[in-house]
Model the fold of this input.
Amino acid sequence: GQQLNQSPQSMFIQEGEDVSMNCTSSSIFNTWLWYKQDPGEGPVLLIALYKAGELTSNGRLTAQFGITRKDSFLNISASIPSDVGIYFCAGQLGTGGFKTIFGAGTRLFVKA
Amino acid sequence: GAVVSQHPSRVICKSGTSVKIECRSLDFQATTMFWYRQFPKKSLMLMATSNEGSKATYEQGVEKDKFLINHASLTLSTLTVTSAHPEDSSFYICSARVIQSTGEAFFGQGTRLTVV
Done:
């Protein structure tokens, strides 16, 4: 079945630093989504990407949908302590009711 | 974004009993809802796709008789864990897709199930 490879698994950074994480897959997806999950909560949608090559920003977050439709990255600029959490990429198929496959997650730690 | 409410947020039950978890889309209609299971420090594992008015589609390895899904209306899907065992203890999360959207799905808050 479809699988997403998300890296890195975890990151320890200093407040103010920029962060980059990415996802790759052997499958083509119609949509790429990036979510953030805080402990004990459901994931919250950060950015949705719909077209190959699309570059989208949401505040300090920027994400891109790879040209091949098999990869995506998320950048966080000038990190702050509240950026701490787990970030998941998710690839969505256009069929099967838009079934969404999640990456393993990147656990971000920000030191003030 | 759209709001999805999941209830209860936490539940403790005895082995052998059944537990029902509700997932409601509060301000939109959802023809499709998804149920996930998440183990500690792990990713979300899709269990099943719930379609309003029809039978749910279960992922490989997920027992349909164990995890009963009912999607009776455009705003409500329920997951019932039947004859619960301690190994069913987990974090269960639902998501709902907005009708005729480009596919964005919004998540509930999750339900922490503990079977003792």
Summary: Residues 9 and 111 of chain B are 4 Å apart (CA to CA). Chain B touches chain A through 30 residues (CB under 8 Å). Chain B has a mean pLDDT of 91. The longest strand of chain B covers residues 44-51.
